[in-house]
Specification:
Layout (H helix, E strand, L loop, with lengths): L10 H18 L6 H11 L3 E3 L4 E3 L7 E7 L1 E8 L6 E9 L3 E2 L2 H4 L8 E4 L3 E7 H6 L4 H35 L3 H8 L5
Antiparallel strand pairs: 1-8, 2-7, 3-6, 3-8, 4-5, 4-7
Helix pairs in contact: 1-2, 1-5, 5-6
Length: 190
């Protein structure tokens, strides 16, 4: 029996999905009074978008002008591998509901995308550009989004630190280099 993937929320439904997600985010980070007005202001700056499974949102090497916040669905980051003419890609990350991916586009002027970003399932998402964070330092919904972004970055740094530490520890006993240890951890073998 074939089971089709659920459709990404569309149009007004995508807006409602994003609005509910932002309400939860505001509650989580203590936005309090006037939350609905703050969310409406945020949504006037950042329109919810949707992508169907397989749709490419941005390609490796494109200009990076913002980050992607997954409201519903799943995004997959992949990079080109190999030197031949074959079009091969390797998945390097996935962002699930509530996760942010591509954040270099917020912080680095002139940055380029380090990976191709594709909807792995029907997805509703927000593109968080620099202008959003400059727009309103008093908007509780924007502040909650900033806090969520910062916690995401801290978690990624901690995970990377743990991988590097593990690679160093695994490299020492056999006389391998830390690069060999990282390669093993990341599936490259050694």
């Amino acid at each position: 029996m074939l089971v089709s993937a659920p459709m990404a929320p569309q149009g007004g439904e995508a807006d409602a999905t994003a609005r509910e997600y932002l309400k939860e985010l505001c509650r989580k980070y203590g936005a309090g009074e006037g939350m609905d007005a703050y969310i409406e202001e945020l949504l006037s700056l950042v329109k919810p978008r949707r992508a169907e499974a397989g749709e490419v949102l941005t390609r490796e090497g494109d200009a990076a002008e913002g980050a992607f916040l997954v409201v519903w669905g799943r995004l997959r980051a992949s990079v080109r591998v190999g030197l031949d003419d074959e079009k091969r890609e390797r998945v390097v990350n996935e962002a699930l509901e509530g996760e942010i991916i591509g954040e270099a586009g917020i912080f680095m002027t002139g940055a380029r995308r380090s990976a191709t970003l594709t909807a792995a399932a029907p997805t509703t998402y927000l593109v968080l550009g620099r202008e959003l964070f400059r727009a309103s330092a008093t908007n509780s919904a924007v502040i909650a989004t900033e806090q969520h972004l910062l916690r995401t970055l801290v978690r990624r740094i901690a995970n990377t630190d743990a991988l590097v530490t593990r690679a160093w520890r695994e490299a020492a006993p056999g006389g391998r280099s830390a690069l060999d240890g990282l390669s093993m951890l990341l599936g490259g073998g050694a």
